[in-house]
Amino acid sequence: MPDNSSTEFVFVLSGLNDTRTNKHIYFSVGLIVYIVTLFVNLTLLITIILDRSLHEPMFIFICNLYVNGICGASAFYPKILVDLFSNSHVISFTGCMLQIGVIHCYILCEYTCLTAMAYDRYVAICKPLQYHNIMTQRKVVKLLVIIWLFTILEVSAGTALTAQTPLCGNTIDKMYCFNWDVVKLSCTDITVNNVYGYIIIFFHLSQAVFITVSYIHIIRACVKSKKERVKFMQTCLPHLITLMNFTVSVLLDVMFARYGSGQDQQALRNIFGMEFMVVPPLLNPIIYGLKMTQIRHRFQHIYRHRLKAVQQS
To answer: What pTM, to 2 d.p., does this model score?
Structure first.
């Protein structure tokens, strides 16, 4: 029985075994996507921070999505890029627990932030006259604190349960450490881990239901006014696209981790595991930044002036 409390204990990540023949191509593509992801998120994040006219609740929550996307991408890409040029795809027990913590923080924070954004849009469109009285700066700060504090507590509890579980194996059939893939290696009863996992899944699916119900009310309100329909298309439709893409990809990966098996399905598992780690951090800046008129115009204004200043100097 491997001793997972030992500093010598390592996990073997078998998800990259099929990439050895094209590792240079995978490395190049992965590095480019990672750099682009960091660049677009940081650029739009700085744009919102520098422009006071964008210091509104909706844009502050969007900033939170950018920060979360950077955290998720940074927990995913560096290790995989290193492994592509390594003969042994291993990770220490401590490194695995850290990766599990950051990746699960990214997933759960994404849901909680999207829920806060749905609430903000509901108030803005369905109760426009009360919006500034309801969505005060103090309330926005409270929501951000709740988003991160609650997420960290959820993940800390789940990771602590996993870290204390005795293991009878060390091979993870994935490209990175994921909580349930480690729990499956347990030598003992995992009922507590299983129940806690279902509680987390149920809670965050409930958030998806809350968002959907909020948007049903928003759509009803938008039908009455052309102005509100435009607002819905600009700020709410991207939100729904993000939610649907993220929910489907995470659910598929979780269901495959819990109920799927077989090395012949490894390629499919890799696709499920990569989709929600790669697409949202890259897609969010596009649909929430470049596609939103206010952010796009301010982005063009700020960097056009900075470019002129550089040219004149």
So the answer is: 0.86
